[in-house]
Amino acid sequence: ADFVDGAVRSYHKHGVERALDMDSLFDEANTQLFHAAVDHHGNVVGGLRAKGPLASAEESHAIVEWEDRPGLRTVRKMLNDRIPFGVVEMKTAWVSDEPSLRRSLSSTLARTPFPTMALLDAQFVVATAGSHILDRWRTSGGVVASKIPATPYPDDRYRTKMMWWDRSTFTNHADSEQVSKIFNE
Description:
By secondary structure, the chain is an alpha+beta fold. The chain has eight helices and six strands. Strands 1-2-3-4-6-5 form a six-stranded mixed sheet. A hairpin with a 5-residue loop joins strand 1 and strand 2. The longest helix has 12 residues, at about 1-15. The mean pLDDT is about 90.
């Protein structure tokens, strides 16, 4: 509940509540894991959730994000090509507005694909995000799907892209500091 409350506040502040997919948040079939960052007072100050492993591309929210947009066919193909190996989708990422926490929380959350893949026995994690978030996520080995054009989701202020983490190759793309933390965690 604290995770959802924080996500609602964060997305509302930016006027992107539409991206939350509230029905999905409260359907246990759509969330297998929550990663919640908790401060020393016990307050949830950020997090994200994992959905999957996906059984088909149609289960991914990315299909909604690229609906009637260039790149939808490629989004669907990328998902379907990887599903036999296990694909988990990361959704509803948010961090506290506290400036002293934002950077470290973002770096920590960027590493959550790895315990997710281990716990849910998947080779891949997929996420979608606005271009302003992608650089932080790249630090942990996420690779932007360059063949897919950005989509204006949840509205025209955003250029949302798809990003993939591959459990077998992430070290080729991640910052060494993040790799060290991933293995330690």
